[in-house]
Amino acid sequence: MALEICFTVKPKSCKFCGSSDLVKRGYDITIHGKKQKFACKECGKIFYGQEA
What we know:
Layout: E1 8-9, E2 22-30, E3 33-40, E4 46-48, E5 50-51
Antiparallel strand pairs: 1-5, 2-3, 3-4
């Protein structure tokens, strides 16, 4: 089984608090491929970027 790389676009702001201070936080491997994770420096929440 080959993994597809899912390209993700860095979000402009946190979807929880609205802050624009975001950093990359690794990725998760799913059945659909790799998904980039981002973390908000303000609220600490971790979420996925949108697929390109």
